[in-house]
Amino acid sequence: MIGKVASRLVIFMLFLFLALPLIVLIATSFTEAGYLSFPPEGFTFKWYLEVLRDTSYLDSFAFSFYLALLATAISIVIGVPTAQILARHDFFGKRLIEMFLSSSLLLPQIVFGVALLQFFSYFVAKPQSFWVLTLGHIVLTLPYIIRTCLASFIGLGKSLEEAGQDLGANRIKTFVFITLPLIKPSVIAGGLFAFAISWINVEVTIFLSASNQMALPVKMFNYVQYNVDPMIAAVSALTIYLAFILIVIIDYFVELENIAAN
User: What is the CATH T-level fold of the domain 55-261, as seen in this structure?
Assistant: First the structure.
């Protein structure tokens, strides 16, 4: 009994330690003061309205959303077949390829951003452009798609796919009508992870963005160098709300996948 209470207390304290900075940030975004203060002085939506009135922030939200959506979509198109090949076939260098595809998860993001900038500087006339930035985000998000889908392919086995082919379906029909519906929760969960990673990334984005491109994380990074007021807290709170929504959706689909597996 004492052990259960102690373990729950430790879990609660750990959760509080992780959540407290976010709670402080969100609370600060509602303050009536013109400076960051906690506890907040009064309660107002003024700073959220200021964000909505600032077209530069709205443009940054739109740009980041489009960039993350495009990078995620391309990563899914590339990552799902790649995960299927890695799960279904054994070949020389397979382990090395898996490690290479996961390298962006291991390297510090600042090092990864510099490396991408150096690479594209050698091979691309304009290393800081939208399509180069998109390629950088694809490299960044692709491992999340591959890792989540790879686990599903390994757990799925080959029997259902082979049964579909025995009944006359070709490889494309088997994938579209049998395999894809079965791994759909993993594709959605991996896509949401990829979208979130692309949305919040600063290091790769700041190195590969052109002067006329201002993703939201870069916009916030530049803003806090000259201004520290509750509006930046409101922008940060909006990104937290988005991340929370994504976590709820991911949790739903992961739970759905577990139910389907059982």
Answer: MetI-like fold (1.10.3720)
